[in-house]
């Protein structure tokens, strides 16, 4: 509770992070593949407004990071899961993102079938996305 109070106290009255505070967020979660943690799998988030097409459809030519059309620093982020299937992205600019994972090079990139972005990053917050999604 004290952490939340400190975060709220750090915000100016407008609700915008105080000058000098990092205006970014994070994304973390766990991926399970075939009922086991996905160990050493690749994970990628792509800013939805520049994503255009899925990574597997982008061909060999790369325009920016990870071949995202119009991509570049700040639009695409990649990491690897640990032995327990956990991944984490830090210092991600706010926005809506598409989420992809690659269990191994043979499968290629995978994304859940959705018409909307998979997650939203909010400055100062951490978005959690587990695959498969937590059941409620």
Q: Please count the helical segments.
A: 2
Distance between the amino and carboxyl termini: 24 Å
The helix/strand class is mainly beta
Largest sheet: 4 strands, antiparallel
Q: How many beta-strand runs?
A: 9
The secondary-structure element order is HEEEEHEEEEE
The Rg value, from CA coordinates, equals 16 Å
Strand order of the largest sheet: 5-4-7-8
Mean pLDDT: 76
* Low confidence ranges: 11-21, 53-71
What is the approximate shape?
globular
Name the beta content range.
25-35%
Helix content: under 10%
How would you describe this protein?
The chain is mainly beta and about 140 residues long. The chain has 2 helices and 9 strands. It has helices at about 1-10, 50, and strands at about 25-30, 30-35, 35, 40-45, 75-80, 85-90, 95-100, 120, 125-130. A 4-stranded antiparallel β-sheet has the order 5-4-7-8. The protein is globular, with a radius of gyration of 16 Å. The model is unreliable at about 10-20 and about 55-70 (pLDDT under 50).
What key phrases describe this protein's structure?
single chain, 4-stranded antiparallel sheet, 10% helix, globular, 136 residues, mainly beta
